[in-house]
Write a structure and sequence with these properties.
The chain is α/β, with parallel strands linked by helices. It folds into 3 domains: 55 residues, no CATH class; 196 residues, no CATH class; 184 residues, 3-Layer(aba) Sandwich (Rossmann fold), CATH 3.40.50. It contains 16 helices and 15 strands. The strands form 2 sheets. Strands 1, 2, 3, 4, 5, 6, 7, 8, 9 and 10 form a 10-stranded mixed beta sheet that branches. Helix 11 links the parallel strand 14 and strand 15. The longest helix has 23 residues. The structure holds 2-acetamido-2-deoxy-beta-D-glucopyranose (3 copies). The site of one 2-acetamido-2-deoxy-beta-D-glucopyranose has 3 residues, from loops.
């Protein structure tokens, strides 16, 4: 898919892009805007490039399996998913689906709204299936026997359908119809549950905090909150350390332990099952579409309860009201490092911040790190999964995303900038100038990597990742950094707002 997109790039579009870029650049220069508003002299990516980008937006994952060869292989499989969905929608009239169990043929009352099918795409990103009746989950065979059900369905319960690399690591489940006369009959129940089951996967890119939240946890919250705990989670691709890490959150959503559905010899029976989550948008929820108008603020509230986070709101006066707001610098060790972290911290301290530097990784204790982030009023970090910790920031806190050099605004916008507003987090970009980037030491100024980032983006995610994400460190200009912190201070609420009831 990617390959064909690439070959369709028209040279004419590229030169249009260059003209637009040149116009934008001169506009920027003319209007004497502050440097940071004028830091992308590359114009805007054209639609095709944007589409290609949209489908490849992901954090740098250290997924051992996400290698280039696999990516090639997987491209064939990908087509299947959308095709199934398309097929499904054409048969929507025929697929009489039962949500109010038992009734064999729901009377076609003069309702104008068609019944939902068993499986349907909730967005480009995720398919959700739902059925009620006699449901028997044969987990180790990835089979869900359902009576009644009009036809067989296959689905992958992970909210990343547009991303073949991720989906290649998600187990597919089959929803299989049966009836009282089926032969052979489906296996008999060995465990009966009185509450509904909810089946999901953390295959994909689990372990990368950004993907954990955007692909799994926020959709999970959106899909299961309305059960008020009376739901049994069936997890495919379960890794014990991952479950441990998020157990406090699961405890808020289910009154039961999480079941390892892939490695379970039992036949679990349910009166109702939901397979796969609803997905609205990256790191977010659209309250106008969610049950009960639930929003990402509710998600944050649930996280506060789960991890016992004391602060509802940030304040210029700081957590202890001593006039020292806390600045948290999210550090990175391998790529996209701050090369002058100590100087940055000193600059912050000189401005009256109480400064903390911390680097979360896969093994960080979630609860401890969540509390540290919740104690912060301003959080600064280079684009990367660590910024996902903004979910723990108190309302009104400021997130400063340091955007590495390389025309990456599209990536940084979708991943953190847009989600921040819904999370009640004030957002600021800090766009790294070439002079602040280590790339300047690696390439001559005329090199494509420095002169034409979008040409590099067009070579695909791997090229982009290698050039701008893996091999770039930043040394922030301290005057610019101080100016950014001053702006951040001004954005902070003057004093802590009273806790919500
Ligand atoms: C890419 O994603 C952005 C943000 O989600 C959206 O506004 C834009 O329309 C998308 N572009 C394409 C070409 O899909
Ligand atoms: C589960 O429920 C079915 C139907 O009520 C019953 O036939 C079966 O014996 C039960 N199985 C177990 C293990 O309780
Ligand atoms: C599933 O588990 C049951 C009971 O342990 C076993 O008999 C069966 O062979 C397993 N099926 C698969 C496909 O592994």
């Amino acid at each position: 898919m990617k390959a064909s997109l690439r070959s369709r790039q028209e040279p004419r579009r590229v030169s249009n892009g260059v003209i637009i870029a040149a116009m934008l650049l001169s506009l920027c220069v003319l209007s004497i805007v502050k440097a940071r508003y004028c830091s992308t002299p590359f114009g805007k990516p054209d639609d095709q490039l944007q589409e290609q980008m949209n489908s490849s937006i992901r954090m740098e994952t250290d997924h051992p399996a996400a290698t280039v060869e696999e990516e090639q292989e997987d491209e064939e499989d990908v087509e299947e998913a959308p095709a199934t969905a398309a097929k499904a929608s054409t048969t929507s009239a025929a697929a009489a689906v039962v949500s109010g169990a038992g009734k064999k043929s729901p009377k076609p009352k003069s309702k104008s709204k068609p019944k939902k099918q068993t499986c349907y795409m909730t967005s480009k990103r995720s398919e959700r299936c739902e059925a009620a009746g006699d449901i028997r989950v044969e987990g180790n065979a990835s089979l869900i026997h359902i009576n009644p059900l009009s036809k067989s369905w296959k689905t992958k319960p992970y909210a990343r359908y547009h991303d073949p690399v991720a989906m290649a690591h998600v187990r597919e489940f089959t929803l299989k119809p049966f009836s009282s006369s089926s032969s052979p009959p489906p296996p008999a129940c060995t465990k009966n549950h009185s509450v509904p089951g909810f089946l999901f996967s953390n295959g994909g890119f689990s372990g990368n905090l950004y993907h954990d939240y955007t692909d799994v946890l926020i959709p999970l919250f959106l899909t299961t909150r309305s059960f008020r705990g009376e739901v049994r989670f069936l997890l495919s691709g379960l890794k014990p350390w991952w479950v441990t890490k998020f157990t406090p959150l699961f405890r808020q959503l289910t009154n039961y332990d999480v079941l390892d559905v892939d490695n379970d010899g039992e036949i679990h029976c349910f009166p109702r099952i939901v397979v796969g989550s609803t997905f609205h948008k990256d790191m977010g929820v659209d309250p106008s579409k969610s049950p009960g108008g639930v929003s990402v603020v509710d998600f944050k509230r649930t996280l506060r309860a789960a991890f016992d986070l004391p602060r509802a709101s940030a304040s210029r006066a700081g957590a202890r009201g001593d006039g020292k707001p806390r600045l948290l610098i999210i550090s990175r060790k391998s790529s996209r490092r701050f090369l002058n972290e100590k100087e940055m911290a000193a600059a912050g301290a000189a401005m009256g911040f109480q400064v903390r530097i911390a680097e979360p990784d896969q093994h960080t204790d979630m609860a401890t790190f969540a509390r540290l982030v919740n104690s912060a009023d301003v959080m600064v970090g280079v684009h990367g999964a660590g910024l996902t910790n903004m979910v723990f920031l108190p309302a009104g806190a400021v997130l400063v995303q340091v955007v590495p050099f390389g025309g990456l605004e599209w990536l940084t916008r979708v991943t953190f900038k847009e989600p921040a507003a819904d999370m009640e987090v004030r957002y600021m970009d800090y766009n790294v100038q070439l002079e602040e980037s280590s790339l300047l030491d690696q390439y001559p100024r005329s090199h494509q990597v420095l002169a034409d980032p979008y040409a590099v983006h067009k070579q695909g995610w791997d090229a982009l990742k290698t050039a701008y994400l893996d091999k770039q460190n930043v040394r922030l200009d301290l005057d610019r950094f101080r100016a950014t912190l001053r702006d951040a201070l001004a954005l902070l609420p003057p004093a802590a707002a009273p806790l919500p009831a």
